[in-house]
Amino acid sequence: MRFADEFRDPELAQVLGTEIATLCEPGRHYKIMEVCGGHTHTIYRYGVQDHLPEAIELVHGPGCPVCVIPMGRVDDGIAIAEQDGVILTCFGDMMRVPGGNGSFLEANARGADIRMVYSPLDALRIAKANPDRRVVFYAIGFETTAPSTALTLVRAKADGVTNFSVFCNHVTVIPAITAILDSPDLQLDAFLGPGHVSTVIGCRPYEFIASERHKPLVCSGFEPLDLLQSIYMVMKQFAEGRVEVENQYTRVVRWEGNPMALKVLEDVFSLRPHFEWRGLGSIPHSALALSSRYERFDAELSFDIPGVRVADPKACQCGEVLKGALRPWECGVFGTACTPEKPIGTCMVSSEGACAAYYNYGQYSKQRIHLEV
Amino acid sequence: MTGERCELDQGCITCGDVAVVLTVIGNEGSDALCRDDEGRTEHVATEFVGQVAVGDRLLVHAAVALQRLVERERVPDAIRR
To answer: N or C: less crowded end of chain A, CB within 10 Å?
Structure first.
């Protein structure tokens, strides 16, 4: 039996659901945000919400790395790719993200050379194999992914590679949570913290959410029982009058994170003064740029980039979905003009996007809970 | 299996902040050769987790090990009560 099977045991899920229900205060409604898109995907795929009492509402957060990329940055990537001799590399889901000037796939159809990679280390290998080309890695993602970009740059520097650079769009999760806490649109009761981000940054950075903002946060794993246990831990805090940061995902998350990875991140990156997030607007100190020690690998310095802000299509309500203010199916174009095959908004692109997850699994969730969980 | 996990039809595990647990089956310099539960192998950079040995379980994202698992992956007793 794979370990994951144990974490999808339907009888244990039923037991946890019942215990969670007993912890609900009569008449009270609980809004719990899962910050990470991976959690959103699990919730829809396995019908986690169906195990919860109606008093508990799961609100989907902005933690899908693809979904928060603004259209202007997609256009910047295409502008790089369309310059002579360039190979642009990126992760798979980025290929379909719509910008103002189309997607990377559409740019390829116009003659650009944009290649999908599994790791930035693959992009470095492509650079070494093509010394006459300029190879750029289009970096996206939170603190889960930033270490792989950082390590690639460390290796590129050590190996003296001169035809490799990074267009950096890495973002950091704490400022996004802070922006949501400051948003007047949404009154949340608690958070499920992003498990894989937390393997890198640890639990300590979340402590202010409990001590200053008085919201419980539980770092959660990604299997259905992980999420149900995390919700149980949140509800237990409410029942006992506690407000704390707790760690459910102890099999990989340490309180202090990964100090070796954090040290390299600090060396390779610096914080940008501001960065625009799709749906959340400009958030100070929320994204990474290459530090001065790695500026010769910085595509923003070595390429001519438009850097123009592009407004989202009016019909698209990704911004409200990303803040949890709107459910995916409440968007006017959900499932009609906007589908995974032809997305208008980024939330419909990645499988971790709330709209794509609901489109793929939502309407079948009650069936799937019996078949798969 | 480099490159095989970015599949447009099924979503991209690197885009999705997905990390996978792999078992070390050999060392190759600063990389480890690892295998998943279904027998697929992958070269993994290990600079962030220190020296690894055959049999170690690693949490891997984008071909980079982020953490070493110290607990057996099993449902906690707290859930089983």
So the answer is: N
pTM summary value: 0.89
- The DSSP secondary structure of A79-118, one letter per residue, reads HHHTSTTEEEEE-GGGGG--BTTB-HHHHHHTT--EEE-S
SS3 content of chain B, % helix, strand, coil (to 5): 5, 40, 55
B79–A117: do the CB atoms touch at under 8 Å? no
- Looking up residue A160, the CATH number of its domain turns out to be 3.40.50.11740
Say which of B1, B4, B75 has its CB closest to residue A7.
B75
B contact residues 36-65, partner A, Cβ 8 Å cutoff: 37, 45, 47-50, 59, 61-64
pLDDT tens across A25-42, in order? 999 999 999 998 889 888
Instruction: Find the CB nearest B48 among A63, A142, A260.
Output: A260
List chain B residues with CB under 8 Å of A350.
11-12, 15-16
Give the closest-approach CA distance of B9 to chain A in angstroms.
9
CATH of the domain at B41: 2.30.30.140
pLDDT one-digit tens code per residue, A179-224: 889 888 778 999 999 999 999 999 999 999 999 999 999 999 999 9
Instruction: Answer whether A212's CB lies under 8 Å from A219's CB.
Output: no
Reading the block at residue A203, the tokens are 């639990």
Chain B closest CA to A246's CA: distance in Å? 15
